[in-house]
């Protein structure tokens, strides 16, 4: 599994993000490229505890059912359900969203796998940095593929 802590993977993701434009169109789904950048930033905010998700037993039960399968696969299926934390309706400013997501990719790598002040995920609850790494890589890769990069 690829890791954001691997310098070459980190640079690859940043280059893929950089290749997006405000006019990039999704191959599936309805998000704009700007919304996708904002959507992917949420994972980093959760990982760093900057956003506190609403934890409810229904979501956590779903998380328990799919956790092993999700962490054992390299890719996400298209059109998976999400929680309200990840729903983005506003487009925001594309260039600002691109800069912010790139900064989070770099910050995450710089924090390293030993970082211990991790936040919670709406479906999986408390995760350690290695689990966040796996989840964030798959999520970001999924959405970059959605936009053909």
Largest sheet: 2 strands, antiparallel
Per DSSP, the total helix count is: 5
Rg estimate, integer Å: 14 Å
Percentage of helical residues? 40-55%
Q: Assign an overall shape.
A: globular
**Order of secondary-structure elements:** HHHHEEH
| Computed structural class | mainly alpha
Distance between the termini: 19 Å
Q: What's the rounded overall pLDDT mean?
A: 90
CATH level 3 topology = Four Helix Bundle (Hemerythrin (Met), subunit A)
What secondary-structure arrangement, pairings included, does this model have?
Elements: H1 7-18, H2 33-47, H3 57-72, H4 94-111, E1 120-121, E2 125-126, H5 129-146
Antiparallel strand pairs: 1-2
Q: Could you name the key traits of this structure?
A:
149 residues, 5 helices, two-stranded antiparallel ribbon, globular, 53% helix, single chain, mainly alpha, Four Helix Bundle (Hemerythrin (Met), subunit A)
What does it look like?
- This protein is an all-alpha fold.
- The chain has one domain (7-146): Up-down Bundle (Four Helix Bundle (Hemerythrin (Met), subunit A)), CATH 1.20.120.
- The chain is built from five helices and two strands; from the N terminus they run ααααββα.
- The protein has helices at residues 7-18, 33-47, 57-72, 94-111, 129-146; strands at 120-121, 125-126.
- Strands 1-2 form a two-stranded antiparallel ribbon.
- α1 (7-18) packs antiparallel against α4 (94-111), α2 runs parallel beside α4 and α2 packs antiparallel against α5.
- The chain starts with 6 loop residues before the first helix and ends with a helix.
- The relative contact order is 0.26.
- The model has no long low-confidence stretch (mean pLDDT 90).
């Amino acid at each position: 599994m690829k890791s954001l802590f691997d310098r070459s993977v980190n640079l690859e993701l940043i280059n893929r993000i950089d290749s997006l434009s405000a006019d990039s169109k999704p191959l599936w789904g309805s998000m704009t490229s700007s919304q996708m950048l904002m959507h992917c930033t949420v994972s980093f905010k959760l990982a760093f505890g900057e956003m506190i998700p609403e934890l409810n037993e229904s979501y956590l039960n779903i998380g328990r059912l799919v956790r092993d399968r999700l962490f054992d696969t390299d890719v996400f299926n298209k059109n998976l359900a999400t929680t309200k934390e990840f729903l983005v309706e506003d487009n925001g400013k594309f260039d600002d969203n691109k800069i912010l997501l790139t900064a989070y990719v770099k910050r995450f790598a710089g924090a390293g796998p030993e970082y211990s002040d991790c936040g919670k995920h709406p479906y999986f609850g408390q995760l350690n940095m290695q689990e966040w790494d796996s989840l964030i890589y798959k999520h970001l890769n999924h959405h970059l593929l959605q936009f053909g990069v």
